[in-house]
Amino acid sequence: MKILIPLIFVLIELSCFSQDFNYFDFEKRFDWSPYEHVSAEILKSNFKLLKEKPYPELKHLLDNKDKFHLVDIDNDQINEVIYNGWNGGEGEMVVIFKLSKNQLVEVQNFYGRILAKRKNEMNQTQLLVLDYSCCAGYVDHLQTFDFNLQTGQFEIVKAIVKLTDTEIPKERIESKRFEVLNTPYYLRHSPEFVSGISDIDFEFKPLVGQNIGQNIAAIYQKGDQGTVYSETTDSTGRVWWFVVMDSKPDFKNMLFYDGNNEFDDYQPIGWMSSKFLKELE
Length: 281
Prior knowledge:
With 281 residues, the chain is mainly beta. It is 12% helix and 38% strand.
């Protein structure tokens, strides 16, 4: 039993990753219909507290009142107020308020768009949040927040990241662990070898040479490990694996960067040629 329980948690975590890839779709929106909207009266009466958080004008605040929702996030049978929408600058923001006698008190805020609300293994609220790239950015962070009863705050417990143009496969295979056999070994944003001038919609200095390796997202070393969730075969017969790496390489060997929520313990995803990857039992 001592072995079985940790194994179950590992399998749950791996299966969640497989489902979460789909949330990188920028068109996805969370269905807030099961939750109540906050009334205009509450927003008006709290305008001084809400000003600049996130809207500076009452009219703009009321025009976006559908972004405020009554949700019980801490299982105390009392609704909190969650705002999720434009933050007044780049991207979107989540702002959480405690509601007491029609008075709103901000308790936490972080960046991104809520795409899922569920329960974790401790029966606490879990949010899946897309901190997507904006403006000059080219990295998307998909972050899992768990509610911590002791601190009364949401905390990031894991995150997977990709370059904006990374191809997400539609088909999945049974996940399996692997180890890298060669140094250097490249994580790419598409299942192919690309050289020449990049024509993708973001610009950066190539990791390998000046005009080659344009689809290389990170450089890994022999012994690095990860998990494969999908595979495809290119026109030459080469098999490519869609992978989640266990960790990121040194910052000099990757194009990824921390998101707006400054969580740096993320796991890069992308494509690797399976030729020099060893499946682990």
